[in-house]
Amino acid sequence: MGSGGSKRARSAGSEQSDDGRERKNGKKKKEKTYLLHTLKEHTDGINCMSMSEDGKVIVTGADDNTAIIWDLKTNEAKHVLKGHTGYITCIQVFAEYVYTGSSDKKVRKWNIDTGKCEVLVEGHAAPVTRLICTGDFLFTSSYDRTAMCWDPDDGELLHIFRGHKRGVTPLMYIPAEDALKDDVLDMDYNKDILITGSADATAKSWNMDSGNCFITFKGHKGAILCLAADPTGTILLTGSADCTIRSWNIATGESFKVFEGHKASILCLQVTNKLMYTGSSDQTAKCWVTEFADCTRTYLGHRHSINTLKVQEGLVYTGCGDKMARVYDAKSGALKRTLKGHEFVITAIAINGGKLYTASYDGSLKIWDCSDIKDDITSFGNKEDAEDEKEKEKEKEKNKKNEKDSKMDTNGNNELESIKEKNETESTEKLQESEKKDNEKVFDNKELDEDITKEIEEINKEMEAVKDV
């Protein structure tokens, strides 16, 4: 299934230090880059990307109304697919074909080898938002409040799924062999299922034979932005603009759990075995136990929305609006690598053969080396992070010792003062001097509070600048 995404406004976040660029003792370390190639042919921002199953080609769709087929052996553009009259919103490589959906309300089927359009699919009344090709069927969703099913061979319309009250975006197809294995209440339900999510805050499951709605999943208070199912095909997971994820019984529509913890919209999610990974516009990614809705890890360090997320071989890869991609250890939550080089928001990522592919609204596709990434990790994160952590620990120990000495001095002084008071030998002059010192301490504390307040204000201004850009 290919990555899809609607047109996005340009976003540029504040820069932060990349791997090999942290400063220590005022000296700049030698920069280490993991960038292998930058592929740039598009004349406008890339919205979506899809890789072939064999990893030989990758296709990008952009605001310049074109899609480009890239040969990953030569890292050159194989074909530029021209024909759409609107920006490309979604894309998928399936077998020897590429399917593109566009704001021009149409879907096109292209031959990977020749670059020619073989089928034009027309019928939607508004921009196409997502598409899925299964081989037997082609599914599309649109802002026209419908989803449609087509014959991918000739573009014939097979079904129209009507019922949503607002635009339809995420799509998910569950074949009969994967669906409802343990919860079949009626044999008529044991068929292929299409599930759609909508800005009307509901998800719906549809009968592939009749086009009728099986179940409406109600409970969210905001648009449903992403969908996934557990490996058994019996549990539906929906991510919403209401800051929550919900789990449902696909067969009955029963709501199981509400996953609370994010503070903004859920933009992407992926289920791996019994765990779910989510990315949000609250600048965090999280890991959850799907059965209990418990958050086990929060992946920090992002400075903008997380638009895309992938989990593979114990690593969490994120593409962010702050122009950077990041790689985390899924289990510990440690940040292993920060990949910096894009000029605008990252809209799609793909992983294959030890390489990370990132597409951006700056119009470029970048290829990064992630082959040795597991060797970079320590108990704290990457090697530079570990060294910094050790320095911090030393500083903490030093501060603790100073605080302890200070307390001992203070206790000694307090004891002497107490004896003096009891013997009534302290003079008025000493009392005045003591009051003067106390006032100086208060003044020093006020200065410290003012410094901290100024620092917090500067940080807040910086964060607001990132959000506003």
From TrEMBL:
It holds the Pfam family WD40. The keyword Ribonucleoprotein does not apply. InterPro entries: Quinoprotein_ADH-like_sf, WD40/YVTN_repeat-like_dom_sf, WD40_PAC1, WD40_repeat_CS, WD40_rpt. This is WD repeat-containing protein 86-like. Residues 1-32, 380-449 are annotated as: Disordered. The gene is LOC100373850. Residues 389-408, 417-449 have a biased composition (Basic and acidic residues). Keywords: Repeat, WD repeat. SMART domains: WD40. WD repeats lie at residues 39-80, 81-120, 177-216, 217-258, 339-369. It comes from the Eukaryota. PANTHER family: WD REPEAT DOMAIN 5B, WD40 REPEAT PROTEIN. Coiled coil: none annotated. SUPFAM superfamilies: Quinoprotein alcohol dehydrogenase-like.
